[in-house]
Amino acid sequence: MQVLLLGGHGKIALKLTPLLLNRAWNVTSVVRNPDHESEILALGQGRKGKLNVLISSLEDVKNVADAQKILDAVTPDYVVWSAGAGGKGGPARTIAIDQEAAKHFMTASFATSRVKKFLMVSYLGSRKKQPHWIPDDQWAGIVHTNTEILPTYAKAKQEADEYMTALAAVRKQNPVGAFQAINLRPGILTDEPATRKVELGKTPKGRGSVSREDVAIVADLLLARDDTEGWIDLVNGDVPVEDAVEKVASEKIDAVEGEDVEGMVKRFFA
Where is the NAD(P)-binding domain (predicted)? Predict the structure, then answer.
């Protein structure tokens, strides 16, 4: 398997890269800064898969053709978006990367026959409607973050997530082979060591936290299966991570419930 990992120097991606390589999958890690190449390549030492680094700025991905050039160069089976402006460069850069570049890569990936999976690392509060499983006080915290603390980021992530959801819905209407659109939505990120214990799928902990290493572990497990898709919320909890992934997959748990998927499709593709 060839995996294209976008945002390869991000903290989650650095944890995810060795896990993917341990599956004997080959990984091409896309990073902006050439100074990070040696750090990335060191992650591949002693692994089963091959690791390559592609120096490319996602800020330069201005259209679908720009994204397609990278896909054509790497020829991935799976695409992982773990990139973002990280609050650097102001609102314009956040929109350019977290929203527009993400959408361009999704458009290209969904239209490329070789690509079978697209995993987006988003965040738990990226939604417009309060779902029935998140209590009022937790939802109020999400709304405060989305409107007062990180409004540009929240807007960009919601736009990208809704576009991905619409693309997936359209793809299901006109299936051209199997395809998994996985939207992994962690809560507040920490740098604590992995606990391997989570709440996954839907969680009332709208303001819950999760370690970046646990996010990487979950992403790896989701990619390794052929029956995972949809919106999957993630915080640390009490369920062993393998059991949590099995439950989400077998029960088809999708946290998009309550959102207007039909409206998303109409907005983007009507």
Answer: 7-219
